[in-house]
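Exercise 7. Given the encoded structure of a 82-residue chain, write a plausible sequence.
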């Protein structure tokens, strides 16, 4: 996904938008929200930062995205969402 395509999507998303964008079921998103490493909703707008969720999934997949280099976020390999 290039920058132009990324900019076409809203940065902050509702749970419904997150599920659609990432292809998640309600159950999968609920399980992810229970993880301490999954990005939290912003308390003011009650939406989640899509870029933070992208980084979360990159980390889980072992992808070293430029924004993760030097970040201490670990990969939680014990969950099974399949």
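Solution.
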């Amino acid at each position: 996904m290039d920058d132009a395509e990324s900019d076409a999507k809203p940065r902050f998303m509702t749970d419904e938008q997150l599920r659609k964008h990432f292809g998640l079921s309600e159950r999968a998103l609920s399980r992810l929200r229970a993880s301490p490493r999954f990005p939290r909703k912003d308390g003011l707008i009650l939406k989640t930062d899509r870029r933070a969720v992208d980084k979360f999934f990159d980390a889980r997949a072992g992808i070293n995205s430029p924004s993760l280099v030097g970040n201490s976020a670990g990969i939680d390999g014990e969950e099974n969402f399949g």
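Remark. The mean pLDDT is 83. Students should compare their own answers with the one above.
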